[in-house]
Write a structure and sequence with these properties.
- The structure is a single chain.
- This protein is of the alpha+beta class.
- It folds into three domains: 72 residues, 434 Repressor (Amino-terminal Domain), CATH 1.10.260; 182 residues, Endonuclease Chain A (Endonuclease, Chain A, 2-Layer Sandwich), CATH 3.30.870; 206 residues, no CATH class.
- The protein contains 18 helices and 15 strands.
- The chain has an eight-stranded mixed beta sheet with strand order 1-7-6-5-2-3-4-8. A seven-stranded mixed beta sheet has the order 9-15-14-13-10-11-12.
- The protein starts with a helix and ends with a helix.
């Protein structure tokens, strides 16, 4: 239930037998203004005033948290408030998404006994359906060119996690996934935004290493889930087609070739009616090609990452200096990077993007000489002199208001999720940790318009509420450089 500020305040006043006149005096207000707060006709002018009211009522920390959250919801509305809160938590907990090994992955966990090859098998109950599903998925994952097609909403967490585990074992496994996204702004019961929840659920499938492609269509999710559906989930492998209800109480397994082909044809007829959820790019050549072709034509660009985009000020001679001599296709990579740097400088000089970054991200770069944008296997670490030079250069080339340093290290600096966003386009950048504990970069080009606007709004919110002023940012950067200057 979404808390209403006036109701929460009124309830506390009655529960604690608070004298409204005395509280108004304590808060330097007249009694009529306080009653307007209680009746929902006005809201307090600041969170500090809410804190004063809480102090007078002797609220516990949990009670104050509820009152302050209700106040913040009243400022922007529940949809925007919970959307921002969800993205904040999403960015603060990257471990689930940047590890190529899901938490539940075990090398001995594969099912080895396939279901009997029957024309049709009726399945009754969650246990029977779940065991059957895991068995046919595990069997398909053992195929050299295994392919799984699944029509299923992302809120089946156990199935998503199991598919990600299988994808870790077999990177040639192909998974085609069609699901529904909500076309309303209605919140889930726990306050979550459903479309952001979908992104969070399927990210492990993008990062586990398999060939995962997701497609979506729109519907009114919260009405749709309450309608009568016979079989809402369809799962197809090379040998089986499994259909079952949302609650996994009833299902049918088809094992004959004609039935499997029938349902595969039905699944593939959906493709013209659905949209690609995101475009995944993993190898460095493809990453550079994608970034070169990315449309920087818009203004109001926000780039959120631990370190400001140093490509903007990178001298081209650094490429030959730091690219590893034995890098495969070195000359080709060198040419593409040179082209990308020139385009980035031209584009950013004209459009002046905002760089949202952290103090720890700058310190990590000065300590390691590593830029998160590029894989470690491509280049040698920059020298300490060149690290300092690059920070000085971006301070020179950017207008002061472009550099937006967060006041605290709210988010992980190393191996964190980065966001590029404009009003109409965006991508996520994920440094994914593999079994060898090395990092692989994944660019996830987000195409769904609601997610694009959600990330754009969140970065604007960060810039306006959690960053130093331009003067303060400059002072912090100069102080950091002075500290590292003593090491040269």
């Amino acid at each position: 239930m979404i808390p209403d500020f006036a109701k929460v305040l009124s309830d506390y006043i009655h529960e604690k037998n608070v004298n409204v006149y005395s509280m108004a005096q304590f808060c330097d207000l007249d009694r009529s203004t306080m009653y307007k707060f209680i009746n929902g006709k006005r809201r307090p002018s600041s969170i500090s005033l809410v804190r004063k009211m809480a102090d007078f009522m002797l609220l516990t920390p949990a009670e104050y948290q509820l009152l302050s959250e209700a106040y913040r919801i009243s400022l922007v509305g529940p949809e925007i408030y919970f959307r921002r809160k969800y993205i904040w938590k999403f960015l603060q907990n990257p471990g689930k998404y940047i590890s190529a090994l899901p938490v539940n992955f075990t090398k001995t966990g594969a099912h080895s006994t396939p279901p009997p090859l029957a024309e049709m098998t009726v399945l009754d109950g969650q246990s029977q359906i779940t065991n059957c599903m895991f068995e046919i998925l595990a069997q398909e994952a053992q195929e050299e060119q295994g392919k799984i097609q699944i029509f299923m909403d992302p809120d089946f967490s156990s199935i998503i996690d199991y598919l990600a585990s299988l994808g870790c074992r077999n990177h040639s496994l192909q998974i085609e996934h069609i699901f529904c996204m909500d076309n309303t702004q209605q919140l889930m019961d726990n306050g979550q935004n459903y479309n952001l929840y979908c992104l969070e659920q399927i990210l492990p499938l993008y990062t586990c290493g398999c060939l995962y492609n997701a497609y979506y269509f729109y519907d009114t999710m919260f009405t749709r889930k309450n309608t009568l559906e016979i079989f809402s989930v369809m799962l197809i492998t090379s040998r089986y087609a499994l259909l079952f209800t949302r609650d996994r109480s009833q299902g049918i397994l088809f094992g004959n070739r004609a039935s499997v082909q029938l349902y595969r044809n039905i699944f593939e007829r959906f493709y013209p009616s659905v949209s690609s959820f995101a475009d995944k790019v993993t190898d460095v050549i493809s990453q550079i090609q994608r970034l070169i072709s990315f449309d920087f034509g818009e203004k109001d660009i926000y780039i959120f990452q631990p370190l400001p985009c140093l490509t903007y000020c990178l001298p081209e001679e650094f490429l030959d200096r730091y690219l590893y001599p034995d890098l495969p296709g070195r000359e080709h990579v060198l040419g593409m990077l040179s082209d990308f740097i020139r385009r980035t400088k031209d584009s950013f000089s004209e459009r002046r993007p905002y760089f949202l970054f952290t103090e720890q991200g700058v310190r990590d770069f000065l300590e390691t000489g590593r830029v998160p944008d590029y894989p470690d296997y491509v280049y040698a670490p920059f020298s300490i002199r060149d690290r300092m030079f690059l920070i000085q250069e971006i301070m020179k080339k950017c207008l002061p208001q472009q550099l937006c340093m967060l006041k605290k290290n709210y988010f992980y600096s190393n191996r964190s999720i980065s966001i590029f966003s404009s009003p109409h386009s965006g991508y996520l950048f994920l440094p994914v940790c593999n079994e060898a504990d090395s990092c692989e970069q994944i660019y996830l080009d987000i195409t769904e318009s609601h997610l694009v606007s959600s990330f754009y709004d969140f970065l604007l919110y960060l810039k306006e509420n959690f960053c130093y002023s331009p003067d303060e940012t400059g002072k912090v950067l100069r102080r950091i450089l002075q500290e590292f200057h003593t090491r040269v």
